[in-house]
Amino acid sequence: MKFPTELSGRVWHTTNLERYAMIVADGVINANPDIPDNERWGTGLGEEHFPFVRSLGGVSVFDFRNFDVDVTDWGAFVPCRTDWQSAVWIEIDISVLGNSFISGQSIRELWHKMDSTRKFMTQIEGAVIGSIPTSAFKKILHYEQQSSSFNTLA
User: Fold this and answer.
1) How many angstroms separate the CA atoms of 82 and 80, rounded?
2) What is the pLDDT along the chain (154 residues), one digit of tens a residue?
3) Do residues 120 and 52 make contact, with C-beta atoms less than 8 angstroms apart?
4) CA angle (25, 30, 34) in 5-degree steps
5) In angstroms, rounded to a whole number, what is the distance separating the alpha carbons of residues 18 and 15?
6) Residue 3 DSSP code
7) Whole-angstrom Cα distance, residue 18 to residue 24?
8) DSSP H helical segments within the chain, as ranges?
9) What is the Cα–Cα distance from 123 to 140, expressed in whole angstroms?
10) Numbers of helices and strands, H then E, in the chain
């Protein structure tokens, strides 16, 4: 599969339509939203094994600015999680987030520095510590598995 040009070179958060509606209603992407752990990525083994970014109190974002498509494992989420029929992609304006944004490379370095064994997606998983306000959204795309296409939501 070819990496989608629509996502290349930018920072994104992905979610489903139901959760996107929650985000819009709340006005933020919460670091710890009110959704069951069994619906989250990498939470099956319990809290002590929660993903690295979550353990930092952050929101996972995909940092597609500088990564090698051929050596990075992006297929489980891009363009859509394998267990979803569609996905909403929210482009994040990192320039308005200040120090709360941590790049994919910096997350990797922090993971090594902390000698962590928690899950994260090497090279492409960045973080925003705390919540992301909707005012930091640049573009919203909706991807449909059935049509294999992106459409602009906002």
Assistant:
1) 6
2) 789 999 999 999 999 999 999 999 999 999 887 776 666 555 555 566 677 888 888 999 999 998 888 877 788 889 998 888 999 999 999 999 999 999 999 989 988 898 888 778 878 989 999 999 999 999 999 999 999 999 999 7
3) yes
4) 80
5) 8
6) P
7) 10
8) 17-26, 52-55, 104-113
9) 23
10) 3, 9
Question: Which segments of the chain are extended strands (E)?
Answer: 11-15, 28-29, 58-63, 86-92, 101-102, 125-129, 132-133, 137-144, 149-152
Residue 83 carries which side chain, given as an amino acid letter? D
Q: Provide the CATH topology of domain 11-32+50-152.
A: ADP-ribosylation fold (3.20.170)
Q: Report d(CA 67, CA 22) in Å as an integer.
A: 30
Domain ranges of the chain: 11-32+50-152
Token pair listed for 47:
């809290």
